[in-house]
Write a structure and sequence with these properties.
The protein is 82% helix and 0% strand. The protein has 61 residues and is an all-alpha fold. The longest helix is centred in the middle third of the chain and has 50 residues. The radius of gyration is 25 Å and the shape is rod-shaped.
Length: 61
Amino acid sequence: MKRMAMVHRKAEELRATAREQHFEQSQKAIEQAQKVIMNQNNTIVSGHNSCGCFPSNNNHH
């Protein structure tokens, strides 16, 4: 009985560790995706400004 209790306890500890690692990996993936999206948005906006498609405050003197 004690051995089974120890096995179940260890299994629960492993599951808890796995959940924590999964959460951390998910958070990192979300942060990386947000950075990619921000970089794409910045590239799109700066690309339009540099080609003159949209007026910017820098072009008006």
